[in-house]
Amino acid sequence: MGSGQTLPDSVPAALARGASIGRYIVLAMVGRGGMGEVYAAYDPELDRKVAVKLLRVKPGNGVSLSEGRARTLREAQAIARLSHPNVVVAYDVGTFEDKVFIAMEYVEGNTVTYWLQVQERDWRDILKVFMDAGRGLAAAHEKGIIHRDFKTDNVMISRDRHVRVMDFGLARQVQEKGGPPPVGMTASQAARSAVPLPAPAAPPVVVQPISIRIVESARGATGDGPPTVVIPEPAPPIPIEGRSSSGSFDARLTRTGAMMGTPAYMAPEQFLGTAIDARSDQFSFCIALYEALYHERPFEGTTMSTLTSNVVHGNVRPAPAGSKVPLWVRKVLIRGLSSRPRDRFQSMEALIEALGDDPNVQRRKVAAVAGGVIMAGLVALGGWKLLGGQNQVCSGGPAKLAGIWDLVKAGEAEPARHAQIRKAFMATGKSYAPDVFATVSRALTTYAQNWAGMYKEACEATRVRGEQSAEVMDLRMECLQERLGGTKALTEVFADATGEVVENSVAAANALESLDRCANVPLLRAVVRPPEDPAVRARVSELRGRAADLKARFDSGRWKEALREMPSLVAAAREVNYEPLTAETLLLSGTVALKSENAAAAESALRGAYLAAEVSRHDEVRAEAATGLVWVVGFQDGRVQDAKKWAENADAILQRLGGHILLQSWLLNDLGALYARTGERSEMLRAEREALSLKQKTLGPDHPDVGISEGNIAFALQESGQSQEALVHVGRALAILEKGLGAGHPDVATQFSNRGEILNALGRHREALECFEKARVIWERELGPEDRNLGYALTGMGLAYLSDDNPTVALVHLQRALRIREAVETNPSRRAETRFALARAMWNANRDRVRAHDLAERAKDEFAAAGDAQHSSEIGTWLRDRGSI
């Protein structure tokens, strides 16, 4: 045993054959588990075999043994009042020593667990068994009792195939004296089912399981982490008459304390210790049915903390590949597994009804009845038109794109909107405008095609195939409408393009909201629900339209406009008091603040977005906010450990959501930048390679974003001293970006500058000068003579001349570089790099060596302050070699 663990309590000896429990004579132990033992026994008065369950009572939490036994006895009496064909009948209850017993019918059969294991079962047969078990649960709920530990171990199938729910040992009456009626029950029903019991003098006793204990370690006791779970090897169940059993007490993973039940089958409210009701049983029922159908449980988790997180956050696994379980069954289960009780079915009866409502059967019935009439109609009225109309009803997607970004077939004339944007791009006079327009056009066409395809699929799933409800179609259509609004806002910005817009247009097209969420029905239905109030919904729609416009302007380079208008948008969103909207606007505000290099404002907004998204379970916003925080907290502010935690959060959310490949790639990109700052070169290279792989997968090998990642890998390799390999990747970056953006685009200049630095490191200074000169020309023309990027090219040129023993020419470039970097460069290491280069040029040219010495001293201090001890030490050595001035 490791530290913090304890051994389970000693197990009491089983009662011997012939012992008595009340009037019942023990034959043999059937099973033992968390709450006690089950014995096969003989009832001499009625001459029949019975099963007797002994419920162990353990005092604690201010409850004495006698009080706990009285309370457990009352609960057993309530269970004994159940009478239903799908519930194991309880004949008698009483006390035995310090225990409570329930005598019940002995079922000649096996548990559903065993029934599922002995051979492969058809999903239809599994459904029938579970629907019968569900009827048993519904009967218990009608009596005001919830099971609290439903699983296949607690359902029996008799030899005549009769299904019965058993083991209500964890049950509690929902209707305590003066409490509200159970969900799905009227007050009058609850009154009829309530058992008149005196109010308990103390809290209910917690029943201590045998096969597992929860140990509150020092960490768990303070609330900083989950408690330690100690699970000894379970003993095999004791069989009677082959594999027959009256009820195994195999309490697999049964947890004690405020939570009672089997964690693998527990509802979120049981984990959280909040109020439970009949819908908690519904949740457990759906877990068990899901496991039976898919051969795996819906929530991953090999540890208590992981399982708890996945259940509470509703992280249901995707269906296994090749599963034969119909989609409509999965949809029913997903609703029953909603993390919020109010989003589940209103009652077990409603869930059973949904499981029995096979749309394929209904369609076959309708087809059988109406087949003759339809055929007659086809002959008389031209049924081909009717069939064609069924497909036409969902073909309106392209029409909705008209005027935004029209879908055209080969040979058709260019639509007016396309021509308008092309003309606006060309009018800016940017040399790279034709190349950029071609790339943007391809990106928008792909997005529009995917949008139209999803529109058709969402419509046909309801109106043609009948696989989803009208409610789900509405949710999906609303999501698609939001995405269409974002596309419209962007093309409107493009239609009035400036040079700045053209420069950023490819990135803006890539930043269009993902369509993936519009196909994620559980997320749409249970996580980010639209407001119920029509007026609030209209206001939310209006503000989302404003946000889409600001995002389009920001993504297109008009970020100063977005910066000015963001505060009023955030304030308006807060007034609506709809958390998903608040999260979305704060995310946009934080992203805009990042562009303005206001790190404090960016961090505040992104944290606010993350928290608002946490409240509303808006996972996409959580992932994007956490990714942004990796950059601002880590790369900009240097809080590396905090940044890595944000990265872990973002990655976990993205892994669960699936499909957000581009966002995953940019998370890796930001991690690469973080590792570059910390000097973790191998990790930086790994992250950038993974980002490249994801971009190639989703965008293709020739997309400009792929070119940017190729350049990042070149930088990572150069930092690791692998200059020759870096040269190969920067060459790929240049080829891709020149093709996609045009030879005069500022992003191409970045790669020319990077290539120059690599060539300098290889000693190929003349070639390096050519690259730096190309970068300088592009940046000066496109961004202006004082742009920060020029600091890279000018410093590189100075270093090339300095290495080529031409310090006088180097001085010209380095002096200009330092002037620019002192004015606009925020990275102290970059300023220090230029200062030291200028110091060496001045010293070698024999120009003002006192100033050269001062520049070098300042550069040494700046490197040290930035945590770069290596460069600081190198400058110290240089200064010592030259003596004092």
Structure write-up:
The protein is an alpha+beta fold. The chain has 35 helices and 13 strands. The strands form four sheets. A six-stranded antiparallel sheet has the order 1-2-3-4-6-5, covered by helices on one side. Strands 7-9-10 form a three-stranded antiparallel sheet. Helix 27 packs parallel to helix 29. The N terminus is likely disordered.
Short synopsis of the structure:
The protein has 35 helices and 13 strands.
Strand order of the largest sheet: 1-2-3-4-6-5
* Average pLDDT rating: 79
Quick one: how many beta strands?
Answer: 13
Could you give the distance between the termini?
Answer: 68 Å
What is the 3D form? elongated
Please state the structural category.
alpha+beta
Portion in strands: 5-15%
| Main beta-sheet annotation | 6 strands, antiparallel
In DSSP terms (H or I, runs of 4 or more residues), the helix count works out at: 35
Q: What helical percentage do the residues reach?
A: 55-70%
Q: Low-confidence spans: pLDDT under 50, at least 5 residues?
A: 1-10, 169-259, 365-370, 372-390
- Indicate the radius of gyration in whole angstroms: 35 Å
